[in-house]
Specification:
Layout: H1 2-22, H2 29-38, H3 57-76, H4 78-88, H5 90-109, H6 111-114, H7 120-137, H8 150-163, H9 166-177, H10 184-191, H11 193-204, H12 214-223, H13 244-257, H14 273-285, H15 298-302, H16 305-336, H17 339-370, H18 373-390, H19 397-426, H20 431-445, H21 448-457, H22 465-492
GO cellular component, one term: fungal-type vacuole membrane
GO molecular function, one term: transmembrane transporter activity
Family: Belongs to the SLC43A transporter (TC 2.A.1.44) family.
């Protein structure tokens, strides 16, 4: 037993290490971009009169397109990776991710030789983006390797994902200050250690089959109960039912029901007493939102305003986040009218982005635990609008810095709240499909950031104000629309809500 426990600790540790070095590194593009410019990537697109080392419009647009495509692909892959994980298990998913990282490295290492065949930088960075979800999502099932610590493990994995964008920041610091000969090809030669490490772990210590599916992990994270609505092994239930007498009474009823004839042949399983109790508490705690579409098919849920109104907000929110990551330097140069201050803000952003998730995760957890869903969404919407407004203020280093600090905290907050909303509104049976579809659609729409970037360079002569103002207005409109819809649905519900009876059954 001790060996098994040690092995599970090793599995979690290895997963955190490779997530730190591969899961979300594409979001460190702002730090990698200066190196690509210095290396002359796409400089052949510039007019010879521009001179060496100077960034031209065509080169800037092409470099930003790399990130736009990679951010799109990363989100699109959330849906197929979840399906592959459920069908073939985490080991196959991890090995696929490792193979994609190998191919990505090969493109960067052999860029000069491959340039005549295809665009090695575009292909290589896109492969990094595809690999990320394979190596990251396949780790979610480890949250149940220690069921009572599932929340901590999920936080560690998410923190590793958020921090992974720091890899290119470290590379840029090494390149600019100590090792100017550490060219892109040499860096990715060294980076081959990462896919080798992942492959070695998958073939040796990692589990072949999932401890739990993504849907089950979502249920554990929200309810504290396993997929059958029972207490997790070794859990006394004190975390979800504080009152000792009430807890013992419910557990006693639960144990009595275990002696009843098996009903597993029914179309849907009978809800446990604990599950009924917990879901009623969550329904009240969430302000009436929890369970609103539970039990409905995925197609019915997708057609509901609960889905498409959140989708509209998410489309703009994700677009704004990734558009800023790709264009932070050029936006700040125009707003501050000072290249040195813009570079300083860019450097601060590069450092804060990987720290944002790590620092904010505990506070996000506290907020979700102690605030109803509509209030949490209101905070999310308000923060999103505030960030947009700060990005409109010219000639102010302080206000732009505040906007950047808010953005790096807002990014993990946004992803966590949308995931939490999806699990509470749509339920756990369809969570993977509905949330995966939402991420996938957002990813496809994210390609429009390339069009926004082109308009900024050409139509608006590098002025980011018109695009940012449009995004703020859309954010405000969709935020208010979703808020009013949720509020109207809550007001329509009976005010004298009560707990469902212990013998409640899902039909």
């Amino acid at each position: 037993m001790a060996t098994t426990k040690t092995l599970r600790y090793a599995q979690v540790a290895c997963a955190c290490v490779w997530c730190l070095f591969s899961a979300g590194i594409v979001f460190g593009f702002a730090a990698l971009k200066p190196i690509l410019i210095s290396e002359g990537v796409y400089h052949e697109l510039c007019d010879p009169k521009d001179g060496d080392g100077l960034l031209c419009t065509a080169q800037d647009l092409k470099l930003n397109f790399i990130f736009a495509l990679s951010a799109t692909v990363t989100n699109i892959m959330a849906l197929p990776v979840g399906k592959i994980l459920d069908m073939y298990g985490p080991r196959v998913s991890g090995i696929i991710g490792s193979g994609l990282l190998f191919l990505a490295c090969g493109n960067f290492i052999s860029a000069k030789h491959l340039a005549s065949i295809w665009d090695p930088y575009l292909v290589g960075y896109t492969l990094l983006a595809i690999a990320g979800p394979f190596v990251f999502i396949s780790c979610f099932q480890l949250a149940n390797s220690f069921p009572q610590k599932s929340g901590t493990i999920l936080a560690l994995l998410t923190g590793s994902f958020d921090s992974s964008s720091a890899l290119f920041l470290i590379y840029r610091l090494l390149y600019q200050n100590w090792y100017p000969n550490l060219h892109v090809s040499r860096f990715f030669t060294l980076y081959l250690i990462v896919p080798l490490f992942i492959l070695a772990c998958q073939l040796t210590i990692m589990p072949h089959s999932s401890y739990k599916t993504v849907n089950h992990i979502a249920k554990i994270a929200v309810e504290g109960l396993d997929e059958n609505g029972r207490l997790i092994e070794g859990d006394t239930g004190s975390g979800i039912i504080p009152d000792e007498q009430e807890r013992q009474s419910l557990i006693a009823i639960e144990n009595e029901e275990d002696t009843l004839p098996d009903t597993s042949t029914r179309p849907q399983r009978r809800k446990s007493v604990l599950e009924t109790y917990v879901e009623d508490k969550l329904q009240k705690k969430s302000g009436g939102i929890f369970g609103v579409l539970h039990g409905k098919s995925a197609s019915e849920q997708i057609k509901s305003p609960w889905f498409y109104l959140m989708l509209l907000f998410a489309l703009v929110a994700m677009l704004r986040i990734n558009y800023f990551i790709a264009t932070v330097r050029t936006q700040e140069e125009y707003l501050l009218n000072d290249a040195a201050l813009a570079l300083k803000l860019n450097s601060i952003f590069d450092m804060l982005l990987p720290l944002g998730g790590v620092v904010s995760i505990p506070f996000i957890g506290l907020l979700l635990d102690h605030t109803d869903t509509l209030s949490t969404l209101t905070i999310l919407f308000t923060t999103s609008i505030a960030i947009g407004i700060f990005g409109l203020i010219p000639n102010s280093f302080t206000w732009n810095l505040i906007g950047i600090v808010l953005l790096v905290v807002y990014r993990p907050f946004y992803y966590t709240v949308v995931s939490d909303y999806s699990s509470k509104v749509f339920g756990f049976d369809t969570f993977g499909t509905v949330y995966g579809l939402l991420s996938c659609i957002c990813g496809i729409f994210n390609m429009s950031q390339n069009l926004l970037d082109k308009w900024t360079h050409t139509t608006f002569d590098m002025n980011p104000f018109p695009i940012n103002l449009m995004l703020v207005i859309l954010t405000l409109f969709f935020s208010l629309t979703l808020t009013f819809y949720i509020r109207s649905q809550i007001l329509r519900k009976p005010k004298n809500g009560r707990a469902l009876p212990p013998n409640y059954q899902t039909i």
